[in-house]
């Protein structure tokens, strides 16, 4: 459920006409609905009502916009970060260090140091080596880091290979069979308090079964570690709950997910940690684009839009589907290819898709673009970095300015020997 809907034939975000935003900000441009973000944050938390002790950390990578983080902070969300840059955003949004979980497979010594000084609440260790390094740095600072060990449960998430993380050959976490030994060795290090385990098997999961399998394995490991005499007070179950991108796709609801989690973890006696990203932000955003022109094709016409793979990378990277709606549809439909202006064939949003009839100058949106949209944008082909807008009722504001190619050019220089 989201708050992008037609009013009198024109697509609105809440009570703001998308055409108004497009006129004033230009296109392409991301638009986020506050009401949708809030609703998703609340529905996800409500789904976990049966879990007695929990901490929900929004996966900042899915949408790191400062205003988005601020809104989620006001809903009581913490942050799951994977770089010092994301940590700084979470802190700037008013999320206390204690509510930040620092994940990521390659945290540098500098990042670990900065995170300790910022009072980060939990470090999710991806290796024994990282744990040893964190312990040394923390001890050197006279501090004790709270840490969880990320375990690779070797479970197939049954999602796109590029966003699957929990199989033995993936780079994430430590091998399941080695985890208890590593946990025991890290537990005795000064500077470190090992408090639990973490797992995240992948993103855009369409079924609960792989998650349940992974959590069940983590429960068994937790018991084995406790039987060895070590302490576990926290279990981090990661993110991964998928969202429908197409009409008619059936996904588990947050309530289904929460019921499964409550059942599997009923006797764990821990604080459960969660790191949802897409399920909170995905449906909360659209990318507005303007049709540059419609060109004749051999099989279908090409709708050339002013958004490209640098603005929304998911179709090019994962073959992902994003619904395409005209902002003021005239009721007619046609079958077309939707492409961006970038000079490679992967800059294709859809082939042979039935869509609203559009012509040069018309506005349209790519839907479900609130997660892994703007955050993955770049400036390929010397295009601008796409701006972002947030809507709240009948109010709206630019929450990230467009960064023009001229600004990017200004950061470059020709060395003396070429002058
Ligand atoms: N926790 C960890 C450790 C993660 O690596 C991720 C996502 C999440 C939480 C949040 O997962 P979510 O709830 O959003 O599924 N760019 C890809 C998705 C990459 C996901 C990376 N990790 C896409 O556009 O589909």
Task: Provide key terms for this protein.
alpha/beta, Lyase, Ornithine Decarboxylase, Chain A, domain 1, TIM Barrel, 2 domains, 9-stranded mixed sheet, globular
Protein model, in words:
The chain has about 425 residues and is α/β, with parallel strands linked by helices. It has twelve helices and 21 strands. Strands 4, 14, 15, 16, 17, 18, 19, 20 and 21 form a nine-stranded mixed sheet that branches. Strands 5-6-7-8-9-11-12-13 form an eight-stranded parallel β-barrel, surrounded by four helices. Strands 1-2-3 form a three-stranded antiparallel sheet. A hairpin with a 2-residue loop joins strand 20 (about 390) and strand 21 (about 395-400). The protein is globular and about 70 Å long. About 45% of the residues are buried. The model has no long low-confidence stretch (mean pLDDT about 95). The structure holds ligand LLP. The site of ligand LLP has 21 residues, from helix 10 and helix 11.
């Amino acid at each position: 459920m989201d708050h992008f809907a037609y009013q009198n034939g024109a697509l609105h975000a809440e009570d703001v006409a998308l055409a108004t935003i497009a006129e004033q900000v230009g296109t392409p441009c991301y638009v986020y609905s506050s009401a949708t973000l809030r609703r998703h944050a609340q529905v996800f938390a409500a789904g976990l009502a049966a879990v007695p002790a929990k901490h929900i950390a929004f996966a900042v990578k899915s949408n790191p916009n400062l205003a988005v983080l601020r809104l989620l902070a006001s809903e009581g969300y913490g942050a799951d970060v994977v770089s010092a840059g994301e940590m700084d955003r979470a802190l700037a949004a008013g999320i206390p260090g204690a509510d930040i979980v620092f994940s990521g497979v390659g945290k540098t010594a500098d990042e670990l140091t900065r995170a300790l000084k910022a009072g980060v609440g939990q470090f999710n260790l991806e290796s024994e080596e990282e744990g040893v390094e964190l312990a040394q740095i923390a001890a050197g600072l006279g501090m004790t880091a709270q840490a969880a060990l990320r375990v690779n449960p070797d479970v197939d998430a049954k999602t796109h290979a590029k966003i699957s993380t929990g199989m033995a050959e993936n780079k994430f976490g430590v091998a399941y069979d080695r985890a208890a030994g590593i946990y025991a060795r890290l537990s005795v290090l000064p500077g470190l308090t090992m408090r639990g385990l973490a797992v995240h098997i992948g993103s855009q999961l369409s079924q609960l079964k792989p998650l349940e399998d992974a959590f069940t394995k983590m429960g068994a490991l937790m018991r084995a570690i406790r039987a060895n005499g070590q302490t576990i007070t926290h279990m981090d179950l990661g993110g991964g709950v998928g969202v429908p991108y197409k009409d008619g796709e059936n996904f588990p609801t947050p309530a289904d997910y929460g019921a499964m989690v409550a059942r599997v973890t009923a006797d764990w006696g821990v604080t459960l940690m969660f790191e949802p990203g897409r399920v909170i932000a995905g449906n909360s955003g659209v990318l507005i684009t303007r049709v540059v022109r419609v060109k004749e094709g051999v099989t279908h016409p090409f709708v050339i839009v002013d958004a490209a793979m640098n603005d929304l990378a998911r179709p090019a990277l994962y073959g992902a589907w994003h619904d395409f709606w005209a902002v003021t549809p005239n009721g007619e439909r046609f079958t077309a290819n939707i492409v961006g202006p970038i000079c490679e064939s992967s800059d294709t949003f859809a082939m042979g898709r039935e869509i609203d009839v559009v012509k040069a100058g018309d506005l349209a949106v790519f839907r479900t673009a609130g997660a892994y949209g703007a955050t993955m944008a770049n400036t390929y082909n010397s295009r601008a970095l796409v701006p972002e807008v947030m809507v709240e009722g009948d109010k709206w504001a630019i929450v990230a300015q467009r960064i023009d190619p001229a600004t990017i050019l200004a950061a470059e220089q020709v060395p003396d020997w070429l002058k």
